[in-house]
Amino acid sequence: xxxxxxxxxxxxxxxxxxxxxxxxxxxxxxxxxxxxxxxxxxxxxxxxxxxxxxxxxxxxxxxxxxxxxxxxxxxxxxxxxxxxxxxxxxxxxxxxxxxxxxxxxxxxxxxxxxxxxxxxxxxxxxxxxxxxxxxxxxxxxxxxxxxxxxxxxxxxxxxxxxxxxxxxxxxxxxxxxxxxxxxxxxxxxxxxxxxxxxxxxxxxxxxxxxxxxxxxxxxxxxxxxxxxxxxxxxxxxxxxxxxxxxxxxxxxxxxxxxxxxxxxxxxxxxxxxxxxxxxxxxxxxxxxxxxxxxxxxxxxxxxxxxxxxxxxxxxxxxxxxxxxxxxxxxxxxxxxxxxxxxxxxxxxxxxxxxxxxxxxxxxxxxxxxxxxxxxxxxxxxxxxxxxxxxxxxxxxxxxxxxxxxxxxxxxxxxxxxxxxxxxxxxxxxxxxxxxxxxxxxxxxxxxxxxxxxxxxxxxxxxxxxxxxxxxxxxxxxxxxxxxxxxxxxxxxxxxxxxxxxxxxxxxxxxxx
Length: 512
Ligand SMILES: Cc1ncc(COP(=O)(O)O)c(C=O)c1O
Hints:
Helix content is 42%, strand content 12%. Strand 11 and strand 12 form a beta hairpin. It is an alpha/beta fold and 512 residues long. The structure holds pyridoxal-5'-phosphate (PLP). This is Aspartate aminotransferase family protein.
């Protein structure tokens, strides 16, 4: 409490300028809100309608000065002017995932009911940490968690929570697995002795967030063991079994096996039922990273590809990959809700323990986050408008299209293709013939960059067994086989030109 001497008058209470107050959404500003949002939507509509390529190929060096020139301390004063400026710093050069020749990463075109949800949830601004900041939002999230757990088949004791993405879901899963593995290590000394001996087994094609999580969880630098895969890039169950035995003989403790239902590069689905059997026999936690493959949960034709997932202890799903939801929208599901206690902390100011007895549903008790977006609303409106079958049909379509794309590439003598994906990726590379053959790596790298610079298409790249490959990730039902064929021609042209230029340059100025 400030104290004032008798002579001093207290400062007049500050009043924000009327213009500042007018920017707050409340009863007095609803028309301004409606107008601003409509203007923003109009800009997006204009851009989306006019887009003729997935990107402009702008470089960081070209765009950074435009962004740097903006003086953040000198406001423009109205939304229209700010939107004009936004055209230059963002919209003009944005990457458009709805464009049929965006074929790179696991970022999907989004469905309109989810965008409606996004508009509503940000304006209401519920926070999912506590009931008293969310009310119905908490119940909606819980219904969607139950719905997803039922689709997986996790049983009556399942639970879970929405997260910011697959990386966070995997982190939380491994946190829970670590805590379960440490459950018998009573006291800090026993725990400190056990932690460096913990191991996580995952496929050599698994996602890097497993490694990151292990680091964040204070595990040893060699805690994650990459288990070899078969010819279709699925983890070898016999190798998992052998590794568990080897670890035990070496005095190590396997705290989790991570099966991947849809590897990022190959779209391969590990043999989940076999992994579940091995984990059950060995008493090891099974986490299934279905960040990519979760779309199969609603597939009218391919749900069986996830058979065995129902036996997992925890599952990651990314609705923002194969449920056509805007970023971010993900969840972690667990078979036994009691394990979520490892993420619980009772804070007097927020979620005191007595609220559990009062049966007040505070989702923060299950989450790594405190303040948390109501992302669940997007999925809720999507299901209420479209229903699960329609979503699954969209995913089925891209999986079918990827199979066609694989066929196209595998029949094209200009390219070499890796395993046929169970989901929607195609990993391939341009293969120069004759003396240019050893330029394959450089030619593919060059082609990817040249393509991105042209903006005509965006494809991804990765390394397979030490060699550079290109990757299509299909998530857009609007992409046709003709689009794929067109992009292959562009790649072949860029790569072929590179090989030609390099080989003729070497002929005219021989090295040495
Ligand atoms: C298999 C898999 N797991 C986890 C992740 C991480 O998900 P997020 O990017 O939502 O953190 C990805 C991302 O591509 C993924 O492919």
